[in-house]
Design goal:
The protein has 204 residues and is α+β, with helices and mostly antiparallel strands. The protein is built from 6 helices and 10 strands, in the order ααββαββαβββαβαββ. The model has no long low-confidence stretch (mean pLDDT 92).
């Protein structure tokens, strides 16, 4: 998972920061959920909504054109969307939006998801997204564990201990967006029934 990898490598950027904007102080279990089943030449993936951007990016890099339907979110407003479009144009388009929940069909690769954002603070559902992806997607999704497995399950607990406010800012909307979260992530990886745990401190 790219945003977890960036946190582990201390390469925090704006994309990582955006993943935490909706979090207050507290402990949030069952975040960034991932289930991978190995196939002969593809993998079957299930994930929570917060992994959707990475599944989406992986799929679009494999093809030039896609059929897409779903929902886009901007400033708490939502709009339905359907189009046949090039991968590059679609990537450019969704940068304008705060969130995107889209089904993508691209030849032998598929990504489907639910069309409503989960409520902040609630536990997430590993069946929110379903995808069929190429084996090389493991380089991103399984970046820090052995890829010789039949089924992998990954979950995280986010523990936010402090909200770091930007100095000199009084606008509440800007404060919400620019404030950083400090804490740690507990990363659990289960490979065919054998579990390992990592703890990662972060500011994002």
């Amino acid at each position: 998972m790219e945003f977890i990898k960036k946190i582990i490598e201390n390469k925090i950027d704006e994309e990582v920061h955006r993943m935490f904007i909706r979090f207050s102080k507290g402990t949030f279990e069952n975040r960034a959920l991932l289930s991978i089943k190995m196939g002969k030449d593809k993998i079957n993936v299930r994930s929570s909504y917060d992994i959707w951007p990475e599944l989406f990016s992986i799929l679009l890099k494999e093809v030039n054109e896609v059929e897409v339907t779903g929902r886009l979110f901007k400033s708490r407003k939502k709009e339905d969307y359907s189009e046949k479009i090039s991968s590059n144009d679609l990537m450019t388009k969704i940068k304008y939006y705060d969130f995107a929940l889209l089904d993508v069909n691209a030849g032998g690769y598929v990504l489907k998801c639910k069309k409503a954002l989960p409520k902040p603070g609630k536990s997430l559902d590993v069946k929110f997204c379903a995808a069929i992806l190429p084996l090389k997607a493991l380089d991103i999704l399984a970046f820090d564990f052995d890829k010789n497995f039949k089924k992998a399950e990954v979950s995280h607990t986010f523990i936010i201990t402090e909200i770091i406010l930007p100095e000199g800012e009084e606008d509440s909307a800007i404060l919400r967006i620019k404030s950083k979260r400090k804490g740690k992530i507990i990363r659990k990886i289960n490979l065919d029934g054998v579990e390992s745990v990592k703890e990662i401190e972060f500011i994002a």
